[in-house]
Write a structure and sequence with these properties.
The structure holds 2 protein chains of 2 kinds. The longest helix of chain A is centred in the C-terminal third of the chain and has 33 residues. Chain A has 2 domains: about 220 residues, Rossmann fold (3-Layer(aba) Sandwich), CATH 3.40.50.11600; about 160 residues, no CATH class. Chain A has 16 helices and 10 strands. In chain A, helix 3 links the parallel strand 3 and strand 4. Chain A is of the alpha/beta class. In chain A, the strands form 3 sheets. In chain A, strands 1-2-3-4-6-5 form a 6-stranded mixed sheet, sandwiched between helices. Chain A starts with a strand and ends with a helix. Chain B is of the alpha+beta class. Chain B has a single domain, classed as 2-Layer Sandwich (Alpha-Beta Plaits). Chain B is built from 3 helices and 4 strands. Chain B has a two-stranded antiparallel ribbon with strand order 1-4. In chain B, strands 2-3 form a two-stranded antiparallel sheet. The longest helix of chain B has 10 residues. The radius of gyration of chain B is 16 Å and the shape is elongated. The relative contact order of chain B is 0.19. The chains are: A alpha/beta, B alpha+beta. Chains A and B meet through helix 5 and helix 16 of A and helix 1, helix 2 and helix 3 of B.
Chain lengths: ~400, ~100
């Protein structure tokens, strides 16, 4: 198939302007991007760098995308993996072309979270294929399918809007397997005539899946959750917890510094610092250490795993590390009561990120866990009051 | 890795199975396999209640109580008294999974 136009870097960076469409990155559908590119190569300068041109199709122009990642794509991945940027890391929904696909080319469905889209286009290097991006509000396939935005009706809408029945001669779309939580294949077939094949869980297995005649091995069907998979998820556990940490730290200083004679910074510091460090340690134990070492920590319950690691970290810190040495027996009891509970609570949050925990199990953990957390926090508070009363010579 | 035992709400009625193989195709945990043109459960405790199998079983042979399986969402639901939610659907500034 002949390519209509190829926007070069020079054209993209060129100053001359034959039309000021302003289309491109801001366009809300892939079709609008392609139309702008075809009518004026200069429109491409506002288009994202991964759009490298446009290809014709019986249903109009389709933007052609690169299968290579730029540094911008890599930086985007890091930013979106660590915070709120992920909610704005998005691509326009609609149809895209990899290579120069024709009527027989496969159609791969993806989400409009740019990282999901990037991983798919990278996996399609060397192939001629269509990519149909659903509007999932910048959320990945798995989470969006759980919420239903990566779902039957959105897929039906996009197939119809992209005029897929004119673009391709066959009647099959390949949906990522994890999309099956939201996509009812039989329903899609009834409403569009397109048969849904659920492809591999991971886009990187697509080339092998195609070579095997669109057959999945059981390894392609099963979710892996290796140490690296777990590690890249931890920034989203650590960052939200750390946002609350300054308040906790200030609270600790306030409690320890408050004396009958007023607020003493020396007191606040000498007793407050070990507790601040222990607090920091317990957050990291729950949000980083426990998730990374997950299979090696005994018991299946995440709350128990977090608690065990929490006790371990308090033990090591109070025994062997200078700055976190807590001498007073009452404060030591508070440390053992409070911080492992905090680690446990934070570790329990990781159930939302795993590939093997279900709602019924988490409910069970919460039912037992929450009263225990509240109990541990209450007793700790009483103990701190007793400590303060003793410190002030009142008991 | 496996989560808590004997908690999944997965229910399967083999007599309704027509052998289409969709459940085995969609399950990311290998709970269903095809044997003699019928779906068979390998290990129920591997199930994480995602609901892909039940949604894609045309013959109503599978039922599972599915929902957001994360602690934050369930706690949100407990506090607000509403359904479990990550709070990432419409609230500006919220961050989703």
């Amino acid at each position: 198939m002949q390519k209509l136009k190829f926007v070069t870097k020079e054209q993209r960076d060129g100053k001359s302007s034959c039309c000021s469409t302003g289309q491109g990155a801001d366009a809300n559908s892939s079709g609008a991007v392609a139309k702008a590119l075809l009518s004026c190569p200069d429109a491409g300068k506002n288009a994202p760098r991964w759009i490298i041109g446009a290809v014709p199709s019986p249903a109009g122009a389709v933007p052609q995308i690169s299968t290579a990642w730029t540094n911008g794509d890599r930086w985007g991945m890091i930013k979106s993996r660590s915070g709120g940027y992920r909610m704005r890391y998005t691509v326009a929904p609609g149809l895209y072309a990899v290579g120069t696909p024709g009527k027989d080319a496969d159609v791969f469905v993806s989400a409009n979270y740019k990282l999901s889209f990037d991983i798919l286009r990278r996996a399609l290097a060397g192939f001629n294929a269509w990519v149909l991006v659903l509007d999932t509000k910048s959320i990945n396939v798995w989470c969006a399918a759980g919420k239903g935005t990566f779902g039957t009706s959105e897929l039906v809408t996009r197939i119809t809007e992209a005029k897929l029945a004119e673009v391709v001669g066959h009647r099959r779309v390949i949906v990522p397997q994890l999309g099956a939580v939201g996509v009812n294949a039989a329903d899609v077939a009834k409403r569009t005539g397109f048969r849904v094949s659920f492809g591999p869980v991971e886009a990187r297995d697509i080339p092998e899946y195609i070579r095997a005649g669109y057959k999945k091995t059981s390894a392609m069907s099963n979710m892996k959750f290796g140490m690296l998979d777990r590690l890249v998820l931890t920034p989203m556990e650590i960052n939200p917890a750390m946002k609350k940490f300054p308040w906790v730290a200030a609270g600790i200083l306030l409690i320890f510094g408050f004396q009958p004679s007023g607020f003493l910074f020396k007191e606040a510091w000498s007793n407050g610092l070990p507790f601040q460090l222990l607090g920091l340690l317990s957050v990291l134990t729950g949000a980083l250490v426990t998730p990374v070492l997950l299979p090696f920590v005994p018991f299946r319950s995440f709350a128990v795993k977090g608690w065990i690691m929490g006790v371990l970290s308090v033990f090591i810190a109070t025994r062997y590390l200078g700055p976190t040495g807590v001498q007073d027996p009452i404060l030591l009891a508070v440390a053992y009561l409070l911080f492992p509970a905090l680690s446990s609570y934070i570790a329990l949050q990781f159930t939302g990120s795993t590939t093997f925990t279900g709602m019924s199990g988490v409910k069970k953990e919460l039912k037992v866990g929450i009263p225990l957390y509240i109990g541990a926090a209450s007793v700790s508070m009483v103990l701190v009051v007793v400590f303060k009363l003793k410190e002030w010579g009142l008991v | 890795m496996k989560y808590l035992a004997n908690v999944t709400t997965l229910a399967y009625a083999p007599d309704k199975c027509a052998g289409c193989g969709r459940c085995a195709e969609v399950c990311p945990r290998g709970v269903f396999i095809m044997q003699d043109k019928r779906a068979v459960i390998t290990d129920k405790d591997r199930c994480m209640e995602c609901g892909a199998c039940a949604l894609n079983c045309e013959f109503g042979a599978i039922a599972v109580n599915t929902g957001v399986g994360c602690a934050a969402a369930l706690i949100n639901g407990m506090i607000t008294g509403g359904p479990p939610t990550c709070g990432c659907d419409s609230t500006p500034g919220s961050v989703c999974c």
